[in-house]
Amino acid sequence: MSNEENKEEKKGINESKLELIIAILLGVTAILTAWASWIGSLHGGNQSTNYTKSNNLSAMGNSMYNEAAQNYMQDVIIWNTINDYIFDRDLAEANGKKKDADLIDEKINLLIEDSCSEEFAEAIDWAFEEGKSPFEKDGYVDSYYQEALDTIDEADSLLEQGKQDNANGDAYGLVSVLYSVVLFMLGIVGIFKKLPNRMIVMIVSAVLLVLATIYMITIPLPTNFSLLSFFVH
Description:
This protein is an all-alpha fold. It has helices at 3-94, 98-115, 118-130, 140-187, 195-218.
């Protein structure tokens, strides 16, 4: 066998190996492209869900805040009315009108029983003992708005999560673009007739594939993502 034939055989073997490697890289890249596109779409779905929940909770929290403000003002009015009754009771007692004073006491108790929440009634009892306003009790005024503020905080948290989902979805979109470039480069390898040129294109494609994959690994998966959940219900 001549040297030229040996060279042709070696060349044929190298080209066969190259074609096999390219086929493997094409298969791997296609699978990774599908994975990146799918995970990116899941991030997009989570983003939409979190934005919707955030908007709903924000509207609910603002409504609860306004309601709390109204309840606070109503309780202030009730407390002022109680103070007026207390003044009238003390005046009646000072004038020796015990029956009138007892009647005013009944009005005060009835007002507290019918118009005050359990929390406000407890604050009023504290105020009577301390000789202060119930609104001076530590943390009591804040308690009107606490539930509303917690709801608004939850809405803000979901909004931030939605923003993060959006950023992660964009990142997976970039990975999909990089994989598409790899697919394109591997697809045009056959255009080049010389083996070294094919090798260069393949190596560049492989490097880009590895870099894109490393970058994809650093991007978080969707919240509560579980691959098994799509197959087991």
